[in-house]
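Hi all, posting the design record for the shared folder.

TITLE: backbone redesign
STEP: 1 of 1
STRUCTURE INPUT:
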């Protein structure tokens, strides 16, 4: 049986670190807890449940949480204005823009309303530019990409000098995780669901990150023995939550020397822990603590 790359216990350690940072920021602010704010303009039930879970986790860390619920028909101007108001609020330490956005709304335009120092999901152009330049000192990283890296480190997976393949090229996960892997010394190649003979590339991977948003895209025939596979996908199938990887066939293919992150229990909870921690670190910086 292959190894399982679970978020715990590392995600719990990050949660404790976040709580400590929030406590210090609260003291520095004269006893006023910093605020983590989320903006949602969707009726997607799964997205709203996720946002509530994240805000609950932030409240447990000591944040005051604020939820801005806009109509699923909200315009770019309405969403941008809500983000700009939160950016101007001195009590707000971190801002999350929940996906999906209303049809026709351009994410790259509305996120200009998020102040870079409060961009705890690393989605603004300024955050992306710092990452592209290799500047990780104080940069708020795209949380899911950072969660992938944290998961690999937590399980002591060697990255430097290894061949890594990323399936998916989105600005949210695929591109930033490829950049972070390269900065960690991996030899990185990016493919996607339409890449001809994708398996010819993925079978060369020692580390395979699957973030294509396609259920069970990667199967046993796409991986080699000993590969470490990180599944970023999340899909609801009836009463089950599954990923971009077909778990049974991939576990068989990678064998006892390989590893696979579970869905749920892998990248998802680590991402939440990273988001809350980055918000806590932002709160410390803004409080001058």
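Okay, here is what came back for every position:
SEQUENCE:
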């Amino acid at each position: 049986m292959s190894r399982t790359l679970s978020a715990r216990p590392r995600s719990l350690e990050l949660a404790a670190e976040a709580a400590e940072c929030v406590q210090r920021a609260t003291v520095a602010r004269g006893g006023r807890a910093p605020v983590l704010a989320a903006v949602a303009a969707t009726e997607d039930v799964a997205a709203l449940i996720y946002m509530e879970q994240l805000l609950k986790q932030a409240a447990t860390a000591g944040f005051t949480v604020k939820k801005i619920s806009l109509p699923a028909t909200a315009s770019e101007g309405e969403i941008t204005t809500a983000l700009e108001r939160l950016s101007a609020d001195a009590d707000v330490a971190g801002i999350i823009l929940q996906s999906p956005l209303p049809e026709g709304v351009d994410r790259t335009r509305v996120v200009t309303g998020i102040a870079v120092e409060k961009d705890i999901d690393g989605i603004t152009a300024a955050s992306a530019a710092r990452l592209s330049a290799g500047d990780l000192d104080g940069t708020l990283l795209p949380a899911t990409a950072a969660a992938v890296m944290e998961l690999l480190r937590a399980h002591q997976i060697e990255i430097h000098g290894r061949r890594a393949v990323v399936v998916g090229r989105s600005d949210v996960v695929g591109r930033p995780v490829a950049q972070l892997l390269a900065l960690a010394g991996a030899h990185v190649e990016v493919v996607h669901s339409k890449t001809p003979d994708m398996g010819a590339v993925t079978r060369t991977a020692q580390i395979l990150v699957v973030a294509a948003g396609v259920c069970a895209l990667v199967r046993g025939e796409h991986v080699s023995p000993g590969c470490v596979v990180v599944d970023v996908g999340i899909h609801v199938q009836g009463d089950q939550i599954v990923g971009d990887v077909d778990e049974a066939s991939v576990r068989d293919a990678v064998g006892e020397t390989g590893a696979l992150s579970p869905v749920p229990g892998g990248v998802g909870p680590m991402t939440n822990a990273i988001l809350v921690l980055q918000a806590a670190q932002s709160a410390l910086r803004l409080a001058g603590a």
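COMMENT: The domain at 33-118 is CATH 3.40.50.10860 (Rossmann fold).
Let me know if anyone wants the other runs.
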